[in-house]
Model the fold of this input.
Amino acid sequence: MTEWKLKRFWTEASVSETEGGYAVLLDGRGVKTPAKTSLVLPTVELARAIAEEWDAQEGTIDPTTMPFTRSANAAIDKVTHQFDEVVNLLAEYGETDLLCYRADAPVELTQRQAEAWDPLLGWAKDTFGADLSPATGVMFAAQPAKSLHHLKTALLEQSAFQLTATYDLISISGSLILGLAVCKGKISAQEAWDLSRIDEMWQIEQWGEDEEATEVAEIKANSMRHAGRFFAMSG
Done:
């Protein structure tokens, strides 16, 4: 049996100011999330980006071509109702932050990690009062509770829409510091992705690229870039 798919039924997608933000309208009727909640966006910029996604649909609607719509749905239907749980999950990345786990050899790789990651650890200390210490190897290295608390506080200050983007920035990169650095405008999402890939790029330089791994990496890179844009549009 063929699964029923929604087809385009509207002529025009537009944006209108409404209570609590901005709504996307299809021929004057407000868009709903999958949970049947009104799709109300925090900024007109984000609402316009979503309206453009709906306007670009031809024939059968393809959700995979609507990343801003999907992220907004997640913010409203999921993150809003599980905000504390998401914060707790992301805060845990501070305990095992990618930037704190360094190779012990070869020296070229250890230098590359230090040159790229040490400035960001210094930035986190100056910005959040979070003093994280790097260690070599893969064994767990405990971080100061006070530092972890400060980083968690930075997450709690975000809106549900911002936290939705931050979730991807942190979970894809494996680093709470990289994710927060994008949120604060210290680095771009692309830069965060590149910084998270130092070990992988070193391996590629030594052994060459794997086609399948490269395809997976590009999907993740696209998701990082989208998360950066979504955060910037979320106010």
